[in-house]
Structures are given as C-alpha cells and as structure tokens.
Amino acid sequence: MPIVAVSDSAIARAARALARGALAAFPTETVYGLGADATNARAVAAIYEMKGRPRFNPLIVHVADDEAADAHAKFSADARALARNFWPGPLTLVLRKRPHSAICDLVSAGLKTIALRVPANDIAQSLLRAAKCPVAAPSANRAGHVSPTSAAHVAADLGEGPALILDGGATALGLESTVIDLSGPRPLLLRPGAIPREEIETIIETKLGNAATPDRPASPGQLASHYAPRTRLRLEATSLEPGEALLAFGATPFSALGPVVNLSPGGDLREAASRFFAALRELDECGCSAIAVAPVPDVGLGEAINDRLRRAATRSHE
Length: 318
Ligand code: TXA
Ligand code: MG
Description:
Layout: E1 3-5, H1 8-19, E2 24-26, E3 33-37, H2 41-51, E4 60-62, H3 66-70, E5 73-74, H4 77-86, E6 91-97, E7 113-117, H5 122-131, E8 135-136, H6 151-158, E9 164-167, E10 178-181, E11 188-191, H7 197-204, E12 209-210, E13 232-234, E14 244-248, E15 260-262, H8 269-284, E16 290-293, H9 301-313
Parallel strand pairs: 1-9, 2-9, 4-7, 6-10, 11-12, 13-16, 14-15, 14-16
Antiparallel strand pairs: 2-3, 3-8, 4-8, 5-6, 6-7, 10-11
Helix pairs in contact: 1-5, 2-8, 8-9
This protein binds threonylcarbamoyladenylate and magnesium ion.
Magnesium ion (MG) binds near residues 138, 139 and 147.
C-alpha cells in the first residue's frame, strides 16, 4: 500500500519521487491531488494515463507562493488583488502563461494560459518547498469519479499507481478550488468551488461572467481558444501527398520528403502524449500544405490524442 503517514522523511520521499518523474498524491485544503513535476511532460502524461481521462483537460499547477507563481504567468491588477486576498487558499487563477515558463505544453493541453494555485495545506506547502518545482495536480481520482477527500479514497481509486500517497487525514474543505479565468477581456467563473462568487466579485469590483455560454462551452476541452493548428490535418494517413508534413507514430512505412515529427518511434503512447502539443505547433509552423497524421491506436492515452486530433481536424466547422 503506498499510503504513508506524514513526516519530514515522507515529504522528502515524495519530493524525490516528483524529481525522478514519478507521481505522488498529497492532501490540499480542498481535495487530494495527484502530483507530477509540471516541467516534465512524460510525468504529466502519466497523470492523464493514471486518471484514465479520455481527453486532455488542462491541469492546475500548484506553487508555494506568489513569487513562484509570478515566474510562470503574467498577473493583471485583478489577479494581484485576488492572490493577495485568497492565497494561500482554494482559489485557482487562469492567467496568460509567460513564454519562457518551463511548464510543459501538456499541462494546459496546448492553451496559452496556465491555471495556478497556492494551496493553504501545510503538507502541500512543505511538499512544494521540498520539491522545488511547480506541481501539476488534478484531483487524485479516476476520471468520472468523485474527488478524494482522504488518502483511503485515493488508494481505492488509484491503487498502487502513485509512488506514494501522503496521508494528511480528511481534507478541511472537501470541495475543489474556485477557478477564475482572468486571461480574457472579462473575468469568468470557470468552476464554482470553495470560495463563493460574491467574495471574488467584491474584490475585483466586477460581476464574473459564466463560462458556459453558447460561444464558450463549459468543458475546457471544447473551448475555441484551445490550440488548433492553422494547417489542415489529414487523419489516418497511410500515404503522403506532395507538400505534406508528417506527424508519425511508431514505425512509419512511408519515406517523407518534407518535415516529419515522430511522436514515438517505439510506439509508446505516454511518450507520444508528452510530445503531442509541441509537435503540432512545430509542424504548423513549417508552411506545409497539410499535416498528414499517421494512425494512433485508440487505447490508453491514444484515446485522448485521437480526441484532440479529431477536434483539430474539424475546427473550421466549430
Ligand atoms: O481544489 C482543486 O482545485 C484540486 C486540488 C488538487 O488542488 N484540483 C483540481 O484539479 O480540482 P482538476 O484537474 O480536477 O480540475 C482543474 C480545473 C478543471 O475544471 C479545468 O478545466 C480547469 O481547472 N483548468 C485548468 N487549467 C485551465 C486553463 N488553462 N484554462 C481553463 N481551465 C483550466
Ligand atoms: Mg477533478
């Protein structure tokens, strides 16, 4: 059983697990999180795999304090005011990501924004300070299950998956953080949570818009702002047309004349997921007439890759 009682050495063990690219579950004041080093794309791919998410939803990045947050995102005046009032605490801010942030593209599923939170829980704080890296952590449950508020819940859902589960007892709030998007022209409530909307509206002296409107669906995977290449995608390609770039997976039977990125020559889906968004960007910028995409098996992380490929390929109809 990977459940470990909290002690200095347990926290050091969890920090070492994160440093080597493994996953560690830890308590926050809201719910337990399944953490990975947010700068390590393979570790982040392992989060999606362990949760069994059928698509790449963007993840929250946890940092120890405002200063650490500042390294990764641009803070508007509203963002500063909310951070000052509610951090550390159950508030997540979606902000524009700094271009030089080391946080990998997979964390925000290719978006140019990043969701940041400074948790108030002592164990989470100790872990973040020991780990010395930003920690991507969704709730530590299987996709579609309820969020875990105890170490036993995490173990029931994820079993031996995480390298360890830091046991900090029942979480204080039991409700996820409130997610506010400050990256656009108008502040939006993306997810209601432990801090009521009114408290946030009082600080920023504005009414929050709602995320779920016809032009802004509730599911972030469907947001129009999600990264979609400008270049046309041709899926399930088994041959190459002149002028096409190739997004390959595994052994590729055709010899490409143009640019090629292979998501994983060895056919490893976790490696493919970790390279996916950067690969799309790279091929999108090479000026080809289209990007031919080799078939990716629709199992495990392949399901999320194919979901994103299909939506990128049909973006003009959205
Ligand atoms: O309380 C919490 O927030 C917990 C603890 C572990 O911190 N975490 C959590 O993470 O609930 P998760 O992954 O289950 O939920 C993340 C939420 C989702 O609603 C996601 O769509 C949104 O944050 N989100 C993350 N990054 C985003 C982004 N760049 N743009 C829009 N929404 C984002
Ligand atoms: Mg969740």
